[in-house]
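Researcher: Last one for today. Full complex below.
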Amino acid sequence: MSILRRTPPDQKRPVDIVVGIQWGDEGKGRVVDLLARDYAAIARFGGGDNAGHSIEVGQTKLALHIVPSGVLVEGTKLLIGAGTVVSLQGLVKELDTLEALGVDITRIAISARAHIVFPYHATLDRLAEKQRGSAAIGTTGRGIGPAYVDRVARLGITFGDLAKPEALATKVRQELLARAPLFAGADDVPREEDVIGETLTLAKRILPRVVDDVAWLDDALAGGGRLLAEGAQGTMLDVTFGSYPFVTSSHTVAGGACTGLGIGPSAIGGVLGVAKAYCTRVGGGPFPSELLDERGERLRSQGREFGVTTGRPRRCGWYDAVAARYAARLNGLDALFVTKLDVLSGFERIGLVTGYRRADGRACGIEALGEAGLRVEVEEHPGWVDDLRGIRRIADLPQAARVFLDRLAELTGVPVTAVSVGPERSALAT
Ligand code: GDP
Ligand code: IMO
Ligand code: MG
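Model: Here's the assembly. Have a good evening.
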């Protein structure tokens, strides 16, 4: 069995998907980097630069926000897909960083159908958070929600629009007019001519990268190549199935790869879920397995759990098998990649959340997520003291770690095919 699927690759199903199954930051970037050499192309299908995907290869450390995580594997083509929303400023910055590292950026393409996140979307994001007060989502402040709102409201501006300056100017004007009431009370009200001027300047750098993604994908896969679809965020942040309203504004589940890349479900080969051996969440919203004591702090310091995009400390807790089982069902997972097992070394006892109970003591499932007074049932496992970072075979892990992983897989209902034991590409046990 490979890391990704139970059966050999099927030519009629050329697309595999990697998704996070928790609340984001599971280690998707490092997993995609590891798998990338087997694919002709890697594509991001949703989200924007709210994502932060870290990769470590030798001395090179990268934090990518929008360019797919296959960028350090020479020869792979990279697509920022139609389902994404992308800041021009953020994209140019990332292209500059990659060029400085010697990456050939002509491998990178962005869909003409992807939507532009303007700086005023970030302003609207911050204003909306302020209005939510104590019920704030804790967004990344990157304007992701407002940009998706504009897309659905049919006011959005796409990368394809960058090629038509006059039509673009008209659209910016119309959008700002429609949104003017929302800026009441804002310090930085966008000025039409500034937005248009800056956009047209940035367009010069970006336009050579803009493609018709449907034709681009057909070309990239011609001759039997395969595509790896890279998820952003995590299943529990999905706009429909996540811990609504404490979610992001896109479809983060595997199905999002179909709508975000224009691919039929029959083209999907395998779906790999990525999960930390424990759990983290950034921002507000329910997190039943959260540890508010010194164990949570220890997970944060040993796991260096600080946001890649915002630097915020991540909330930490035990692996939540109730949420993981739900995610396995929503994504149709074939296999599970468990990251950061090394972080658990030294804990005397390690928890797995096996069930939830309502405030009145009745057993319940994921449907009760967000209810006041929800409690968790925790199964405690003996820990281990060994440093796992040099281990390359699951069979060579300490007995206690293997028992923990077997139980994690059993509770999730998905086989664990790989385990990472350090941030560097080679720190992998299979
Ligand atoms: P993503 O958003 O899912 O790509 O994950 P992030 O990059 O936001 O967060 C994962 C963090 O854990 C990054 O800092 C990685 O370098 C780090 N990391 C990934 N895998 C491992 C691992 O197996 N062990 C340790 N110690 N760190 C890891
Ligand atoms: P990666 O791809 C962790 C969270 C935010 C907030 C909520 C909504 O690195 O796993 P948004 O800015 O999207 O409107 O914020 O979603 N969030 C993430 N948390 N990892 C991410 O991405 C996230 N992207 C968004 O913290 O709670
Ligand atoms: Mg991240």
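The longest strand covers residues 268-276. Residues 70 and 210 are 19 Å apart (CA to CA).
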